[in-house]
Every structure is written in structure tokens, then in C-alpha cells.
Amino acid sequence: MVPGPPKPFARLVGPRGSAIALDQADALDAIATGLSERSVDAVVTSPPYNLGVRYGGYDDDRPRPEFLAWIGRLGAGIDRVLADDGSLFLNLGGPPSDPGWPWEVARAAGERFVLQNVIHWVKSIAIARAHAGRDAGLDRDIAVGHYKPVNSDRYLNAAHEYVFHFTRRGDVALDRLAIGVAYQDKSNAARWASGERGVRCRGNVWFLPYPTIRRRAKDRPHPASFPPELPEQCLKLHGVGRIRLALDPFVGIGPSAIAAARLGVAFQGYDLEGEYLSEARAALLREGAKDMLASQPKAALAAGTQRSEA
Questions:
Q1: What whole-number distance in Å separates Cα of residue 71 and Cα of residue 254?
Q2: Which CATH number does 8-309 carry?
Q3: pTM
Q4: Which residues pair with 268 in a beta bridge?
Q5: What CA–CA distance (Å, rounded) separates 303 from 306?
Q6: Which of 55, 64, 174, 246 is the most exposed place for a label (fewest CB within 10 A)?
Q7: What is the rounded radius of gyration, in angstroms, for the C-alpha atoms of the chain?
């Protein structure tokens, strides 16, 4: 555990000029002490699911009432820092043997909010040529994406997770066409007032597969991360131009930070594990970000850290 105020880990400038902060801290402590009221416009995060996942120093196998109480405290902390017209995007999944678990967690986390949208993140899908239609141009049935297979004759493989979109009153206007899809029949664009951009609302089913990896320990050294494209679509949906600061209190190896960097959005990320934060920093540098702390003299860096912890 890293109790108390957040400890600065990295301060970067993204390739589009946005400020990106990565701090080592417990999420609840960090939200309570590191952020001011109503300072965050978008939260995109995937907290532990309490499924016994092997993180570094976090116990992901608590008694259910204890875990749900903890998630409720997380929601209360986000309630304090989220702007009046802000969005909370909460990614949750569950085991095939307990499909209602993500909804229990979402209810606990979102008790103070209104559930405005439920997004289905599809990680793998099989499409029959006959069902795709002629315009799809398929010459065979296809199966795309990745999933963790279930060794059971009772349960189906879990090929999707949820993204629960919470707002304060359920009335936040979204930039739906920022993640729109092109009309398959171009004549449909002329039939709708919103069709002038040539795209329509994507809907609440998003197919976003993980990239193929060869060595998990090297290519995805985190037991439960999402691809950067998922938080990127969430931020676009909320409206990039309205985001002063985006937050991920469980930033892990940094996919949400990468999404913010790509979009030019200011970002704050927290995580308990320094190893994950190191991976996040390295991923941001590969995206073209520059680490401002690394460029400072050691004496100045130490003084800055002491001031932040005072």
C-alpha cells in the first residue's frame, strides 16, 4: 500500500502538448487529497473486479461486502471531484459463473449517479458470411478478436465486458458522432438531419479487440488492462473539447493515459504499483510524450517531491 498523499512518479507532456501526471498512490487516498472539488470532467477507469486476479500488492479476493463497501467509497470520492456535467466511464467484467457481478459492482460504485448508458465492449466476435450481407465483402465466415477461453461444458466463453456510463443527472449531451460510423447506404445520410457528417451514431456495442501479443510478460505486463482505443472512444464520446482534466485512479500500464495523450487531453493517473507506472511511462514515451521530471536536475526533483509531500 502507498497511503497518504500521491507521490509524483512522472510528469509528461504529450505529443499534442497536454500535461500528463502519473502518481503512485492508493486510489481512494489520492482522490481525497490530490484533487479539488469538481476539477475532473471525465473519469475512465477499470477498478479491480474482486475475482482473485494476481496484481502486485493488491488483494483482489476480499469478502464481497467489504469489496462493495470499498467500491462505494470510490464512487463517493469520484462524486466529490467530478464536474456537474462530467462523465464516469466504469469498465467492469465478471466470470461466466456469476454474470450479475458486474452489475452489483456498478450499483455500488454508481449509487450517487445516474446510469446514462450501458456500453458493451466486445473483445471477440464470430461473423457468418451469410449474416454480414453482400456489402461486407466477406468470402468466408470470420472470427476476430481475443478472449480468455473457459474450460467448462456449462458456460460460454466471455467475449465482452461492460462500460457503465454514469453522470450526475443522466442529462449530459454527448458528441455521439465523434465516434460515429459511416452509413453503409450513403443515401441514408440525406434522410437525417445529423447525416451531413456522413456518419451515424455507433450505438452501445463497440468491437475493440486486443492487439495480438507474443509474450504476455513483455507485451502486456498487467493482468487486467484494456486497449487504449476503449478510453479513447469514451473521451471522444464525452466531448474532447469539454475536458479540462481526465482521471484514471487505476491507471495500471497506462492505456487511458495513452488515449488522453493521443487526444491532447490533460490527464491524472494513479496506481499502487510502481512497476505498472514504469510501464505506463515507457508506453507514453513511445507515443512521443516527453518526461519533464526525468529532464530536471536530481536536486530540483527531490525538492519538488518534498514540497508535494509536505
A1: 21
A2: 3.40.50.150
A3: 0.88
A4: 21, 247
A5: 5
A6: 64
A7: 20
**Residues found in the chain:** 310
Long-range contacts of 102-105 (CB under 8 A, 24+ apart): 102/49, 102/161, 102/162, 104/68, 105/47, 105/49, 105/50, 105/68, 105/71
* Domain boundaries along the sequence of the chain: 8-309
pLDDT at 284: 98
Could you report the per-residue pLDDT of 264-306, keeping only the tens digit for each? Answer: 999 999 999 999 999 999 999 999 999 998 765 544 444 333 3
Contacts of residue 121, Cβ cutoff 8 Å, sequence gap at least 6: 91, 160, 161, 162, 163, 206, 208, 226, 230
Confirm if 39 and 244 have CB atoms less than 8 A apart: yes
What's the Cα-to-Cα distance from 130 to each of 105, 139, 142, rounded to whole Å?
38, 10, 11
